[in-house]
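Usage

Read records sequentially. Each one opens with the input sequence:
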Amino acid sequence: MLRTIAMVMSGDITITIPPISRLDNRQVSTVKALYAFALLLGVSLSLPFPLPALADSPVQEPGQAVIPTKVIPLIPDNDLSQWYTWLTDSGYEDPRHVFTVQPDGILRISGDGFGALTTKKEYANYLLIMEYRWGEKTWAPREQAAKDAGVLVHAQGIDGGYGWKDGQPGAWMPSFEFQIIEGGVGDLLVLSGRGKNGTQLNPSATVSVVRDRDGEPVWSSEGKPEVFRKGRVNWLGRDPDWQDRLGFRGKNDVESPGQAWTRIECICRDDELTYRVNGKLVNHITDVQPRQGKILVQTEGAEWFIRKLELHPLPEVQP
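and closes with the structure output:
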């Protein structure tokens, strides 16, 4: 059904296009150009609704965050329609099929390149449950490095805003990362970066930490609260002898060995984040800002697979 969106007041010209919710960037650009042309002619142009800004991504400006009231499968029936892709070398296109759902319903992330699968919606106050395992393939420049990936929550700003440099976008959005890397599953990474309109976004979190022998912060319930606006906070049992090499496994690691499935849980409750790996509490973060945002699944040079990715309503009692 066509809808009238503009009328030239000095004549009987009516312009019709599809409803505003179905406008894509090209169509929005056309309407804006028409509006500018009318102004140049000194013609008054009446619009019954405001023109949307051109999107920085395939998704228009975010609305109110979704708070789950029932289980939300993020990959239902082998369907990725709740997501879009961002890759540093191809933007919103995925010509190498980095993200694919296999016939058995398992999501494969090839690891070829850097970027993410990103939710179109923002979420808040949820329990994220993921079951993943590593694949065999690794890619340059991390062919011999520890297999690396992650899940980002409360992501805001622009795609590629983290790592933006000299006008070139990076791989991810400003956010909080649930690190998934050999030897470091459960680390917190605070990713600051570029927001919309060139603003700087600096997510902030408070973590109770102790310092290891190298001075690196490690989460501990008996530690001292510190504010982090960038950098990494190691999970509770991270091996101080950790090395960025393929196959590394620390003596206290709770990630399942080899290619066995690992279950992670990220509890996002108001201004808190709680990280669990195979049922074990490994990190706890408070005073989180922002408290809502998109969810990203990373590709970072290593093949990995996801068989479950769901958002659950928060339990009444913190598990």
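Summary fields computed downstream for this record:
- The chain has two domains: 3-46, 72-312.
- The longest strand covers residues 126-138.
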